[in-house]
Amino acid sequence: MNHPLDSLVHVNLGKSVYAMLREALAAGRYQPNDRLRIRELALQLGTSVTPVRDAMLQLVQEEALVLRSPRDFRVPVLSVARYLEIRALRLELEGLGAFEAAQRIDDATLADLERLLQANEEAIARHDLPAALQCNQAFHLGLSQAAGMPTLKRFVDHLWMQTAPLIAAGYASFSPDMRVGHHHAIIAALRQRDGAAARRAIEQDILDGGTQMLAYVMRQERIHAGSPEQDKEAHDAEHTQD
User: Fold this and answer.
1) What is the pTM of this model?
2) 157-184 residues labelled b (16+ CB within 10 A) or e (exposed)
3) Is residue 18 situated within a structural domain?
4) I need a labelling partner for 91 at 20 to 30 A (CA). Which of 97, 155, 192, 235 fits?
5) Is the CB of residue 141 less than 8 Å from the CB of residue 164?
6) Quick one: 136 and 48 in the same domain?
7) How far apart are CA 33 and CA 220, in angstroms?
C-alpha cells in the first residue's frame, strides 16, 4: 500500500518536514482520526525522528493535528459545534476577503485565480483528488491574498488547516457546483469589481460544501461519542512504538 506521502517525497526534497506534512494535510492525504506515526514518517523522509516530532508539535499548535498522548498524533475529528464555529468564521472572514479583493484585485492576480480554477477543473476531470483539493485551497487563499489583508489571510489559512481533511473526506461526493461552480461566480464578480457579488458567491460556496461536511461531522460524532473502542485505541497507541 502506498503511503499518503509517497508522491510528495521526491518532488519536495528541498522543503522542510513541516512544509511536507502541512501540504499532505492540506491536500487531504490524511482523513479525520488518522494517526501519524513519527518513526514511520522519519524513515520515509530519510530523517531522524526529532524534526518529524517537532513538525508535528508545531501542527498541534496550529490545531491541524491533535496530540492524544505523547506518542499518538491524530488528524482532528471535529465536533458539530466546533465545525459550525469554524464555518461561521470562514463566512465572515472569507466574505470580507472576497469583498475587498473585488475592490483591489489587479489583472495579473485575477489571471492567477482563473488559472487555479482551470487547474482545479482539469484535476477533477482526471480524478486527481489531491491535486483538486490543493487547487481549491490555493484559490481560497489566493482570494484572501488579493484582499491585501495579510492578517486576514493568516486567519483563513489557520481555519483551512483545521478543515482540509474534512473537506477531502466529503469532496468526492460534492456536486460540480459545490466543487467549482461558485468559483466561476466569484471570478465573474471579480471581473466586474463587484464586492457584494463576490461576497455572496464565496459565502454560498462555503455553505453548499458545508452541507456535506456537516452531515459527515454529525455521523462521526455519533460514531465516536463515548466509544469504548476509541478509548482502547488510545491506550494501545500509548504502549506501541511511534
Assistant:
1) 0.80
2) bebbbbbbbbbbbbbeebeeebbbebbe
3) yes
4) 192
5) no
6) no
7) 10
